[in-house]
């Protein structure tokens, strides 16, 4: 079994920032953690999905290492390899210092995590099966800027659904920091006033756990808000096994005006007017949902019923397939008109093609005779 790694003495993170004259950049929302106990708590939490073994012998991908405070704790806890993805090249000298001290266990990558294919970092690693009982020996972590953590989370949920990018390696667990309010929304159960679109899409694809809170004073410079550390472990099977974009659109629409009853907000899935009334009734008839519930009260089973009923209705009524609530009436009518024009044109083309083949067949028959 791998043992925790003892790194040679290095300047501490605060000294590194001073040595390399690095000041936090506001546009990259840089807030550094400098205290060793806080850094180590994060690294310890990163190893928890692996039980007693922790990070020993694991591959860790850290996004936004900055000067390398968390990185150092991850290495010290025995991670076999730590691959960092950092956008700001000012951190290269301090990361290289750590790389030398780690004897190559630290791999440095410059890039923007929002368009990075993480799976290319370990091309030779065996790809375990998604349904394997144990988790793959990889974890993805980061103390990210708030303006990056939510878009990254959405991108990761999409990739969880399609099993791409880092999820080509199975159910990779994750640990990230979020603004505390966002973290609360991610874990909010049905009936909680924080229950939102984010709660449903996160919980549809992953087991989400709120680990602990960090005060603003844990960071340099301190942010104005508190920070929640959240872990996510992909589920073997999502509750609603449909494409992310579809589930996200349905949940966003029905959650819009979430203090209203679902008999109103479910209707937003359909173009206004007669069609809305008819199709809303049809959707409720296909489910056993109480129309007076608030969207925030819906369980994952309820959302599954809504999504599958909506999918069926879209298949039966192609003109509403691309309807997105929030279009003006004109845009919506225009969209329907476009849809019916496209449908007419498609039919005309099909007719032309059929008659063309019929003529061909006739010609062939005549030639044979
Ligand atoms: N991990 C360090 C710590 O805890 O002290 C730094 C945290 S700081 C909040 C966020 C880090 O993410 C910064 O180093 C910043 O340059 C980096 N970053 C910001 N946007 C990024 C992106 N799109 N891709 C990769 N890194 C990014």
Characterise the protein shown here.
This protein is of the alpha/beta class and 369 residues long. It has 12 helices and 9 strands. The chain folds into 2 domains: 13-234, Vaccinia Virus protein VP39 (Rossmann fold), CATH 3.40.50; 244-320, Helicase, Ruva Protein, domain 3, CATH 1.10.8. It has helices at 13-19, 36-47, 69-76, 92-101, 146-162, 180-187, 197-205, 244-255, 262-265, 274-285, 300-316, 329-368; strands at residues 32-33, 59-63, 81-86, 106-110, 138-142, 174-179, 206-214, 219-220, 227-234. A 7-stranded mixed sheet has the order 4-3-2-5-6-9-7, sandwiched between helices. The longest helix is centred in the last third of the chain and has 40 residues, at 329-368. The relative contact order is 0.08. S-adenosylmethionine binds next to β1, α3 and β3. S-adenosylmethionine (SAM) is lined by residues 28, 30-33, 63-66, 69-70, 85-88, 112-114, 143-145, 148.
Tell me briefly what this model is.
With 369 residues, this protein is of the alpha/beta class.
Helices and strands in order:
Layout: H1 13-19, E1 32-33, H2 36-47, E2 59-63, H3 69-76, E3 81-86, H4 92-101, E4 106-110, E5 138-142, H5 146-162, E6 174-179, H6 180-187, H7 197-205, E7 206-214, E8 219-220, E9 227-234, H8 244-255, H9 262-265, H10 274-285, H11 300-316, H12 329-368
Parallel strand pairs: 2-3, 2-5, 3-4, 5-6
Antiparallel strand pairs: 1-8, 6-9, 7-9
Helix pairs in contact: 2-3, 6-7, 8-11, 10-11
The protein binds S-adenosylmethionine.
S-adenosylmethionine is lined by residues 28, 30-33, 63-66, 69-70, 85-88, 112-114, 143-145, 148.
């Amino acid at each position: 079994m791998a043992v925790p790694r003892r790194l040679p003495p290095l300047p501490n993170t605060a000294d590194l920032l001073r040595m390399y004259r690095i000041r936090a950049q506001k546009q990259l929302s840089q807030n550094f953690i400098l205290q060793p106990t806080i850094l180590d708590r994060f690294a310890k939490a990163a190893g928890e999905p692996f039980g007693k073994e922790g990070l020993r012998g694991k591959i860790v991908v850290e996004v936004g290492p900055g000067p390398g405070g968390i990185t150092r704790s991850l290495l010290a806890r025995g991670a076999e390899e730590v691959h960092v993805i950092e956008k700001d090249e000012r951190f290269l000298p301090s990361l290289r210092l750590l790389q030398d001290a780690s004897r190559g266990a630290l791999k440095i990558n410059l890039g923007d995590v929002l368009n990075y294919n993480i799976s290319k970092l370990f091309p030779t690693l065996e790809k375990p099966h998604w349904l394997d009982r144990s988790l793959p020996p990889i974890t993805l972590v980061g103390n990210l800027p708030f303006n990056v953590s939510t878009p990254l989370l959405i991108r990761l949920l999409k990739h969880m659904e399609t099993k791409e990018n880092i999820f080509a390696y199975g159910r990779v667990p994750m640990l990230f920091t979020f603004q505390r309010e966002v973290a609360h929304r991610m874990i909010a159960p049905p009936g909680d006033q924080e229950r939102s679109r984010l709660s449903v899409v996160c919980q549809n694809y992953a087991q989400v756990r709120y680990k602990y809170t960090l005060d603003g004073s844990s960071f340099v410079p301190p942010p104005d808000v508190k920070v929640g550390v959240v872990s996510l472990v992909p589920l073997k099977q999502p509750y609603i096994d449909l494409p992310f974009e579809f589930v996200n659109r349905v949940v966003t629409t029905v959650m819009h005006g979430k203090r209203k009853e679902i008999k109103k907000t479910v209707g937003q899935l359909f173009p206004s007017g007669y069609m809305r009334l008819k199709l809303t009734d049809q959707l409720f008839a296909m489910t056993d949902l109480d129309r007076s519930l608030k969207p925030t009260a819906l369980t994952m089973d309820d959302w599954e019923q809504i999504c599958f009923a909506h999918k069926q209705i879209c298949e039966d009524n192609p003109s509403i397939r691309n309807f997105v609530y929030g279009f003006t009436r004109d845009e919506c009518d225009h969209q329907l008109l476009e849809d019916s024009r496209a449908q007419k044109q498609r039919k005309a083309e099909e007719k032309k093609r059929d008659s063309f083949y019929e003529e061909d067949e006739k010609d062939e028959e005549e030639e044979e005779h």
